[in-house]
């Protein structure tokens, strides 16, 4: 690469028609941007022949430079770039940008071993290379998740791993041997959930097979041990067949017991006839199977309904991207074989509430990951942004906001890991009995933290935090979509009440 002195750049690059500038010791020829720069040619001429590093980073993110690498004509003699350019898989050196266990010496954790570190590295590389580019496109356009990406995830075992430990992982190739299926535990799931949330594209996050993640667990845990169950699971794990969980109705959100969708047996007892609607169903617009809560006589049951005659889905526009496939589903005299019943008839509430534990816990993992990204963005911006002659970080009020945000993330991450440790050492049936309340309280705590962090981050970022593109796009996205985690999987108030009711249920009578 050709080298220049700063004097040469000033002398040769100050031309009105051929402006040059320096960004982080690299010399750029801006003449091709004179007619296309969004800010107009006047902005470019203002920095012609000068070091524009501070001006550039006050307006743009680092990845913008990668899009204009063809404008590079040289570097400054005797100087090296100082700005860190993250590579796929890199950990962030920003304080609190990574969980404590990933920060290296001298930090320790009793929960994670080498298999967790290998999986984290592999998942970070995969996310940076494949998820981030597609997430950005799908979130903006509403385009569906590509089958190519789904196939990539299936190849490395990502679809199977997201459902947690179990026989479905045994003897499987998981990220080229990063972890053995037999040693896979819930901390591995924490890693995957938190890494896959890093693209900060909330609609895409749900588009990325979230329906399978919360729906197929019902079939795995409660479906009959049969060739039929094995076939359906294999079809869904292959990524070629899509599945979602259909519980919520316009008549019944968090109040599951009030659902009105019915399933009545035919006179010969061989089929159910299903009628009703489901609303706000993630991935519903393009799913092939629907794990559906229905009313069967005196109780509620769960059945697997295949898309076919009488099943209709319509897209619902929500605060995040339509790429998530949020749907209104109508069942009109749908004929379903009785063999598609999952578990026992009228035992659906127990199954649904058991399944909620995994869903709510996974949501805690991802929302905390997003909160951590927001904290990192705010720390970087506060060190960079100059206002009233000072960096933002030099203002005590900003440091107070950052302190609150950091404390909320770190405390909830610790609680998440404590509960996850219990899950690793407790059978599934025991988790349902002993952890439902704790997980509900954790979800409420995490989404309340997200509320505070979203609010403070926008105050730190100002107008950029309200803009969908540019420097503050992650802040805008988080502020616009964090409420999904406060509502989906059970509203904050409902899961908080569950936690307290579970505590009172086990309250020792001797203390009265």
What does this entry look like structurally?
The longest helix is centred in the C-terminal third of the chain and has 37 residues, at 348-384. This protein has 512 residues and is of the alpha+beta class. The strands form four sheets. The chain has a five-stranded mixed beta sheet. Strands 6-9-10-13 form a four-stranded mixed beta sheet. It is built from 18 helices and 15 strands. A hairpin with a 2-residue loop joins strand 9 and strand 10. The radius of gyration is 26 Å and the shape is elongated. Helix 13 packs antiparallel against helix 15. It comes from Emericellopsis atlantica. Belongs to the acyl-CoA dehydrogenase family. Residues 1-77 form the Cytochrome b5 heme-binding domain. GO terms for molecular function: acyl-CoA dehydrogenase activity; flavin adenine dinucleotide binding. This is Acyl-CoA dehydrogenase.
Say how many strands there are.
15
Order of adjacent strands in the largest pleated sheet? 1-5-3-2-4
Beta-strand percentage range: 5-15%
Distance from N terminus to C terminus (CA atoms, Å) equals 79 Å
Mean pLDDT, rounded to whole units?
Answer: 95
